[in-house]
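Can't paste images in this forum, so I'm doing it all in text. The chain is below; anyone willing to post the predicted structure tokens underneath?
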Amino acid sequence: MERLLEFVQTNIQADTSRLILERDKWPGIDMDIAVNCIESRLKLKGKVREWYENPRLIFPLKLSAEQCSSSLTGLYKAQLAERIAAQKGNESNMNESPAGPDGWRLADLTGGLGVDSWFFSKKASQVLYCEMQKALCDAAKHNFAVLEAGNIEICNCMVVPDSELLTALFSEFRPDIIYLDPARRGEGGRKVFLLEDCTPDILTLKDDLFRFSRHILLKLSPMADITMVCERLGGCCREVHIVGAGGECKELLVWMDREWAGDYSITAVELTGSEDEGKYEVTGFSFSPSEERSSAPLIAGKDEIGTATHLFEPGKALMKAGAYNLLSTKYGLKKLGKSTHYYIVSDQDSLAAIWKMGKVFSILRCESLDKRSIKQIAAEYPKAEVTARNLPMDTDTLRKKLGTKSSDQFHIFGLKSDTAGNLLLVTSRQ
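Text version of the structure:
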């Protein structure tokens, strides 16, 4: 182990293809594992910096590093689990737990690289890490010891419905929360999105898991359809969290509650902060699907568009949540069109409320989209980013018509307004 770790550190910037071809130069080094460790460590640099910087950690499978949580999302899940465990309805279970009345236990049944388990261990009294691949279990045992995470128990097992192993597992470890992040890879490594195609299949497993814990926290692909997921899982869905960070939609989390009988809520979350420091700020927007259905958007009038000072583009998490109308009515934002999910803003209080929930642009110029405006704006702004939405042309076509080169200073939007027709808006990023 020591020799392998030393080799990885020495060759962290090396060409891994060359290392594989020249493996005979290093007898006694399992080059496949060493290369996986090198490539995995590099992938963790922008995800979990504390792990990346620790030379004593080992990462045997590159795919696990690609799929693991980042520091920001790991911290968010741990705090969400802490809130779930604090529910009144779970007090009797917690009081019976060996963790004590003030502690709580979580079972991570899809342990993988162990990043989520590690973050959960910072909040929970005890964590059970389960993983079917022995190489990952061995690595987790080593890594948790290095990280001094002494409250994590490791089990090399496969979670299947109605298994004797599952029953035996939870007779010893009584979890307050069960966490699953099913593998979203099918045959040949292809990505899958349907619940039943993931491993393990939560649809067949959930009733068995509910025998052992009232609460299940499920991590799914951000591409999953929220309505379909909640319909398939049934009335146990209590909260859906869409987690965005760094301009991307990172995760979709579903809190399942065995005793829940109401509608589920959706929370769109934007995380801003430093991966290096492991600190973040949460900006969230919560609503129920029925609230969105009963809301009508505020559509911007032609005169309002002409005098607007700012343009708001919702972040990826908000867009995924689909609260297009409610966002308008709650914050007083004027939507450009029923099917154009961009909003004009002039009120400072509204700006302050939405600032971290997406991108805010200062409007420098607003023109009807025609040959004349395209020619004028192309001449005045030869360098700008370009976006087209809800127009007869796509972004690439509009960019070619403008002839602009990429630049972060300006952003030109081609957008359809229900009241003013097709528009060209020249903006700068706030």
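Confidence is low (pLDDT under 50) at residues 88-96. Residues 23 and 31 are 6 Å apart (CA to CA).
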